[in-house]
Design goal:
By secondary structure, the protein is mostly helical. The protein has 40 helices and four strands. α11 runs antiparallel to α12. It is elongated and about 105 Å long.
């Protein structure tokens, strides 16, 4: 059996006319609204686990009378009319199919029959792989996934979906079989085989991909058929044709009425024959809506990538959790989609599997990544990019974008929702303590829909007709402009009106934004008033800077760490501020936790904070060195012990360690003392050799950024320490000195090793000191036992492999212990 052609070009046109002829069929599925969009007092759904996904989708897509302080900023930034925010071309095409099938119950029952579905799939496979028989098609394996039989995979997908989704799946396969090329069929079948055997979330993605593709083909063929009919016989005058359907210009009142009708018809999938004919004001409006729909589908997905998917993947990649990273697009995506839809009513072409209960690929990533990470994801040049495509995220020091680790499966931290739909419900729960912590996710998505940026991006793409699907946008705008109430004298064409200069290079985003508002692509009026709370007007969707100004006027401060409004949010006190740190803030609670974890770096710029322990160390170290002539060997050695304790406290915070080292080396008193000790080869310099070794190794390994003069000062100090015990002129020193010096050399190496810093020069210092001691012991017949009195046995053993390459090569060990 060949592919059953339910609707070819001619019949597809007839199907569209049938839908028009019966705008309110009695047997239309109850889930599909063909009238005004519902308006809900709240998007929160009581007992959400008891309702079906279609009901959740309807409630969360409805206009809302009640919103909350924590999502006000996102609503204000989101420029779109709420109808456009919740609308997708995928849902509209499903409504078109529902309306069409409602007039043909026999055909609908046929499409819902599994036997018929299998026949359709076999015919599709046969066409795609150009096979000679149905039997060959039934056992055909996928071109990419060779272990998958295509028919079995498609049937598995059929069994996974329920209700009217089966009708849509059958219909989509028919359209693909009727009108897609063999190469296109093979590609789509591979997408099914890749997902059909996996979890329900992957199956849901396969369903969306196939139905979207099939219905795109169906709609395109309907328009081709309509155009052919018009060319053959012309468009006949339709009885009761609405005003403006064939007129280039209409009055303002007529325009308002036509815009309301066109918008309602577009979202409910009820097409007027006059609109199909493409004439006049209504035809132009319909064309603009179709172009905007296509653009917004892509724009929403790119914004979703930049605000949710890629930051989540980047976080998991930073912490080395590949399993979680690779499931962000499988399971995590459902949770983030549910949060976005429930939180601010935005729906994407990728529909959420609301009942997904696998918390894989989700975490509170925006409370784990730094503000600089967000700046890069928010940059216009990175819009929609995978994190791997952003240069800064590939750098060796990319760990600087990680502020802290957060537990996987919790969003926000502390909340383990049982299913994706519960997360979306939490975002609009009035008494939820967790909801305000979700606000940052909604705001960062809305950032990509701020009025000026969206206007420029959408208009310039559509006006350039950069895709074939955008063809006719310019002409349609010119037609609408003839009836625009704010049309300006001297601006005869819309393109002249839209640009501020004669060369059409400076887009007037205010004018174009008002035009989009007039045709109800942008929101205004009742929705914004309804979204307001406590007299806080929401205007028309201003920039984040305007929102910040308004919040400041109201005396509110949001902590950028916990994203909660607190009255004790303050700028962090930096040791040496680099640039503007006015936005580097924390509330008292977050600062206390930060200090409790002994973190001395600013989470935003990684510069040192003014910490008491660090201040105390630097002051004490400098003061101690200044009194070098009175230092006992133990007092001098204690400086290294203090440094070791400081590095242990700052473990993992290499920027802080390097900053402390830089402050010490560049301190005038420290430099004066080191130069004096080097010139006189003073004993106290040898007694505090550990600090000198550590600073010298950091400089030589490129971790300490100081001047070449300061670097040479450290190198000379090392030579002054080593000269008495190396070479033919090596002095005979107290045995305790040898043991103490080796311990002083091992300590800096241990600090670098434990902190995962470079150990190259530090290890060379250990080997150099060890060889010198072995030489001195042999030359002067030094008492080995007294040398070992000042050695730390654990240090000696720890250095065997990583420093010497084994016990047999350890010169010090062989000299003292063998």
């Amino acid at each position: 059996m060949g592919v059953g052609k339910c609707f070819g070009p001619k019949k597809a046109t007839e199907a569209a006319r049938v839908a028009t002829a019966a705008p309110h069929p009695t047997n239309t599925p109850s889930q599909i609204s063909t009238t005004k969009r519902p308006k809900a007092s709240s998007a929160h759904i009581s007992h959400i686990e008891r309702v079906e996904s279609d009901y959740i989708r309807e409630v969360w897509s409805a206009e809302r009378d009640v919103n909350f302080p924590w999502n006000t900023k996102a609503y204000k930034t989101l420029t779109l009319n709420p109808s456009w925010a919740s609308h997708t071309s995928f849902l509209r095409r499903m409504r078109e199919a529902d309306l069409t099938m409602a007039k043909n119950s026999t055909e609908r029952r046929k499409l819902e029959d599994q036997g018929h579905f299998e026949e359709v799939v076999v015919a599709v496979v046969r066409k795609g792989y150009m096979l000679s028989s149905n039997e060959a098609a039934r056992i055909q394996r996928d071109a990419i996934h060779d272990d998958k039989e295509i028919t079995k995979a498609c049937v598995e997908l059929w069994n996974a979906v329920q209700g009217r989704k089966r009708m849509h799946l059958s219909h989509a396969f028919r359209m693909i079989g009727d009108f897609e090329t063999p190469a296109g069929i093979v590609a789509k079948l591979s997408e099914v085989c890749d997902r059909a055997h996996r979890c329900m979330s992957a199956k849901n993605q396969a369903f969306v991909l196939i139905v979207t593709h099939g219905y795109n083909i169906w709609r395109d063929q309907a328009r081709v058929g309509e155009a052919a009919a018009n060319d053959a016989g012309g468009v006949q005058e339709l009885e009761g044709q609405e005003a403006g359907a064939g007129e280039a210009s209409v009055t303002s009142n007529e325009a308002e009425e036509l815009i309301d009708k066109a918008l309602k018809a577009h979202f409910s999938a009820i097409l007027n024959p006059a609109v199909l004919a493409g004439g006049g004001f209504s035809g132009a409006l319909s064309r603009v809506y179709e172009c905007v729909e296509i653009f917004l589908d892509e724009h929403k997905e790119k914004a979703f990538n930049s605000a949710f998917i890629e930051p989540a993947r980047f976080y998991f990649d930073l912490v080395g959790d590949d399993h979680q990273r690779d499931h962000v697009n499988v399971h995590g995506i459902n949770w983030y989609l549910a949060l976005l839809h429930g939180g601010i009513g935005v729906q994407l072409p990728l529909l959420s599997a609301y009942k997904d209960g696998d918390r894989i690929g989700i975490c509170d990533f925006w409370h784990a990544l730094t503000g600089n990470a967000w700046k890069l994801f928010a940059a216009e040049g990175n819009f929609g990019k995978a994190f791997e495509g952003i240069k800064e995220f590939r750098d060796e020091n990319r760990s600087k974008f990680l502020m802290k680790r957060v537990p996987a499966g919790q969003l926000p931290v502390g909340l383990e929702s049982s299913k994706a739909m519960h997360l979306g419900n939490t975002a609009v729960e009035s008494n939820s303590k967790q909801a305000p912590r979700l606000a940052v996710y909604l705001e960062r998505y809305a950032h990509f829909f701020r009025r000026d940026w969206l206007t420029r991006r959408m208009f310039e793409n559509l006006n350039a007709e950069s895709l074939p699907e955008y063809a006719g946008f310019r002409k349609a705008c010119e037609t609408l402009y003839l009836s625009y109430p704010l049309r300006e004298a001297g601006k005869e064409s819309f393109i002249e009106f839209a640009y501020a200069d004669e060369y059409y290079t400076e887009l007037d985003v205010v004018r174009v934004g008002e035009f989009f508002e007039w045709i109800k692509i942008y929101g205004r009026g009742e929705w914004w008033d309804g979204a307001a709370a406590g007299g806080m007007g929401l205007g028309l969707g201003g920039s984040p800077a305007e929102v910040e100004k308004e919040e400041t006027a109201l005396g509110r401060k949001t902590c950028p760490i916990c994203m909660e409004e607190k009255d004790d949010v303050a700028v962090l006190e930096h040791w040496k501020p680099q640039g503007d740190v006015s936005e580097h803030k924390m509330c008292g609670e977050c600062l206390a936790q930060w200090q409790k974890e002994e973190k001395l770096e600013c989470p935003f710029c990684r510069e040192l904070l003014h910490a008491d322990e660090m201040t105390k160390f630097i002051k004490n170290a400098i003061a101690t060195i200044n009194h070098q002539q009175n230092l006992s060997p133990d007092e001098a050695a204690a400086i290294m012990e203090q440094w070791q304790m400081l590095e242990m406290m700052l473990q993992g915070q290499q920027t802080a360690i390097r900053r402390v080292a830089k402050l010490v080396v560049e301190h005038n008193d420290f430099k004066a003392s080191i130069l004096k000790g080097t010139a006189g080869k003073c004993r106290w310099l040898r007694d505090m050799a550990g600090v000198v070794f550590r600073l010298d190794s950091m400089y030589k390994d490129g971790e300490l950024k100081v001047s070449a003069a300061n670097g040479k000062m450290l190198a000379n100090a090392v030579e002054a320490i080593m000269s008495p015990i190396e070479g033919c002129s090596a002095e005979k020193l107290d045995p305790h000195f040898y043991g103490a010096l080796y311990s002083q050399a091992v300590c800096p190496w241990l600090c670098a090793w434990r902190g995962e810093a470079s150990t190259a020069t530090a290890a060379e210092h250990v080997r150099r000191v060890g060889r010198a001691i072995a030489y001195g012991v042999k030359k002067h017949n030094v008492d080995r036992e007294r040398v070992k009195d000042r050695l730390v046995d654990d240090y000696v053993m720890m250095a065997h492999e990583p420093v010497w390459g084994g016990q047999q090569r350890d010169a010090l060990y062989q000299a003292l212990y063998r």
